[in-house]
Each structure stands twice: as C-alpha cells, then as structure tokens.
Design a protein that fits this description.
- The protein is an alpha/beta fold.
- The protein folds into two domains: 2-99 and 221-242, Rossmann fold, CATH 3.40.50.720; 109-217, NAD(P)-binding Rossmann-like Domain (Rossmann fold), CATH 3.40.50.
- The protein contains six helices and twelve strands.
- The strands form two sheets. Strands 3-2-1-4-5-12 form a six-stranded parallel sheet, sandwiched between helices. A six-stranded parallel sheet has the order 6-11-10-7-8-9, covered by helices on one side.
- Strand 4 (66-69), helix 3 (76-88) and strand 5 form a beta-alpha-beta unit.
- The protein is elongated, with a radius of gyration of 19 Å.
- The relative contact order is 0.18.
Length: 243
C-alpha cells in the first residue's frame, strides 16, 4: 500500500517513524513553511502542490492507495482540498487531529472565532505575545493600534516586524521555565494562541501560573471525514485498510 502523509506536525513524524519501521511505502509532504524542518525517516517532498488541479494530478500520477492528513489543526485549506480530492478519487482519507486544549481551573481564557475579535478582548497598552505562527501575523493587525505585539517564529529572519514590538525566535517544544522566561522578559500582559492542542501547552501553563489572560482562537470547522487522534490510531486505520 502506498501512503501519502500530509505532514508538518509532531504526530506526523511519529506516524512516519511507525510506518518506516514496518517498511511501508510512504511519502511525507511538507508545505515548506519552515526553512529548516526536522527530518522525516521516510521519503519527503517539500513545497505546495500548486493548486487543486496540480494536487489531484500528483495524487493520480503517484498512484497512492490512502491519504493520512496530519497537517496542523488550522491548515483548513489543504485539509478541505485533500479530503475533497480523495473523495473524488475514491481514495481512503483520514484526518489525524490531536485533541484540542480545554480551559482548566485557574485559566482565564476568552474564546474567539476570528482574529479580528481579539481587539475587543485586549485593552490598549497591553503587551501581547502572539503564539500563533509567523505566517499568520498579518491577521492580527487589528491589535496593533496602541498595543505592543511580539510574535514567535521558528527561523531567524531579516523580515521587518510589521508592528510595534518584534519577533521572538525559537523552535518548539518549549519547557514551562522557557515559557515563563519569555513572558517575564518581554513583560507580556496577554497571550494569544490558536487552539492547536497536543502536548506542547507549556505556554498555557505559564500564563496560568502568572495569572495572564489568554485569548484563544477556536479551530476552524472541519469537513465530515474519517478522523483519528493519535499516530497509533492512524496506523490501526491503515492496517485495517491493508487487510
């Protein structure tokens, strides 16, 4: 069975390792957002497909038997497109989607559905950490008026930060102590996060410990499709297909 693994998450790397250990024929596909992505133990392509028609042609030409979509929970466009193409080609598809975070005792979360809602939740004069990814920094322009913004990114860059504030460079996962240092050193008063879920929630623990408000962007709606939560569940899904 030939598997297309739409990758870019820690779960995707774990699944790739499991599949490689079984000698499965798998191709991991990375969008290329990060300049220096961590290596995968399977053949890997990097870069976009060039649109829906090009992705469909690629999937046909490569003659895949199944698709496991282990992209980021907020990669809605590629997930919707891949699920749609897979359905058209009658190619089995599953979404590997880790559980979302839930507020716990001591948390001060405000939930939003769109980035432009954040400005009504964060007062002027705030110092805000955008733990939302460098690619989407422009989505938070509504916060720039009378607030100081910092956005975390994986790669060093010469790109000018578009607002008052700056980039914070670092590769996750971060420990609780690292997150506490970041929040304290930059005198952060508010944290903005996407509800990516998963085990790397140290920033939320740090915000709880420091009593900082968190503006949490809810996940986008997902297409109706097969869904699993862990690499092990994805492997079981593939095993059933192969049988």
């Amino acid at each position: 069975m030939k598997i297309l693994l739409l990758a870019g998450t820690g779960e995707a790397r774990v699944l790739a390792k499991l599949l490689a250990g079984q000698g499965q024929d798998v191709l991991a596909s990375l969008a290329g957002v990060t300049c220096t992505p961590l290596a995968y133990p399977v053949p890997t392509r990097v870069g976009g497909f060039g649109g829906e028609a090009a992705q469909r042609a690629f999937m046909i030409d490569q003659d895949f038997d199944a698709v496991v979509d282990a992209t980021h929970p907020f990669a809605a466009q590629i997930s919707e497109r891949s699920q749609r193409i897979s359905k058209e080609l009658t190619m089995p598809y599953t979404r590997l989607l880790r559980r979302e975070w839930r507020a716990e005792e001591g948390d001060n979360w405000q939930l939003i559905d769109m980035p432009d809602e954040a400005s009504s939740r964060i007062p002027p004069g705030a110092r805000v950490l955008l733990a939302t990814g460098a690619v989407s920094v422009s989505e938070w322009a509504g916060l720039a008026d009378s607030r100081t913004l910092f956005c975390r990114r994986v790669d060093e860059t010469d790109q000018h930060f578009p607002f008052e504030g700056g980039w914070i460079v670092g590769r996750p996962p971060f420990s609780l102590e690292e997150e506490l240092d970041t929040l304290r050193n930059h005198r952060i008063t508010h944290l903005v996060s996407k509800n990516a879920g998963g085990p790397t929630g140290a920033k939320l623990l740090a915000a709880r410990q420091l009593g900082l408000p968190v503006v949490m962007l809810n996940r986008p709606a997902l297409p109706d499709c097969d869904r699993v939560e862990t690499p092990e569940e994805a492997l079981a899904w593939l095993t059933i297909l192969k049988a």
